[in-house]
UniProtKB/TrEMBL annotation:
HAMAP family: IspE (MF_00061). Catalyzes the phosphorylation of the position 2 hydroxy group of 4-diphosphocytidyl-2C-methyl-D-erythritol. This is 4-diphosphocytidyl-2-C-methyl-D-erythritol kinase. InterPro entries: GHMP_kinase_C_dom, GHMP_kinase_C_sf, GHMP_kinase_N_dom, IspE, Ribosomal_Su5_D2-typ_SF, Ribsml_uS5_D2-typ_fold_subgr. Its EC number is 2.7.1.148. SUPFAM superfamilies: GHMP Kinase, C-terminal domain, Ribosomal protein S5 domain 2-like. Residues 196-259 form the GHMP kinase C-terminal domain. NCBIfam families: ispE.
Amino acid sequence: MTNTTYTLPSPAKLNLFLHVNGRRSDGYHELQTLFQFLDYSDTISLTLTDNNNVTLTTPIEGVAQADNLIVKAAKLLEPLKSNQLGVEIAINKVLPMGGGLGGGSSNAATVLLALNELWQLNLPLEKLAELGLSLGADVPIFVRGFAAFAEGVGEQLVPANPTEHWYVVSKPDVHIATQEVFQSDDLPRNTEKISAKALNTDHRQNDCEVVVTKHYPEVAKLLATLLEYAPSRMTGTGACIFTTCASEQEARDIQAKLPTGITSFVAKGVNQSPTHVALETLRKKAG
């Protein structure tokens, strides 16, 4: 089994809307959101070893190994294996950190999904998602792998089928901490709940925009610029903004107009996670 390598995409997600419905007694917030994946991903390679160790061969600058969600995810599964297999993990990181695209959560979920197979744990997705929730509220959506309407802290998922638009995703040179946004006195916390049956994205908003655009003028300025071209909204707690386009060409035309200093990419929304698609391809090859 050693020297087996899985190389998998670890995709971004968008919050097509994000409503804050209230604050719970434990300090967490009640949310409603619509998750969709993007066909734009980090790439993670996992190679089995027989030394029983978990090693990240590509440390991320400024993030201690013990704090890295990739390592935490692997360590979470370690006690559940009945063999002496270890793993070496490498990541090619292209998703911006602090952008609201869920990169760290996606990385953790990709490791959980891959090691579940490489270490022959055979855990059901429901169990993996439950374990992943301890790493972050967004991990379960990446583990489950389908676009979804989410409630609770983001872990209660109902499959959804939003339109798979083309997007320009843009980010000014700022890093926004999720905790900072949710602790802000400026955050609206009383948006009325909607039902999954009444789901649409036409008139929804991201409640976190109120906080971020007030405290980060770079985000406010970029959002105002993008709204002149096409419908635009912040994803998650920012700083990334996604602009909804009718075609790839429109997306690239808007991207070409972005101000200097703005990081951006063009991607298509997809309702099935690229990680799951890649794993299924590997299974077919193995079978």
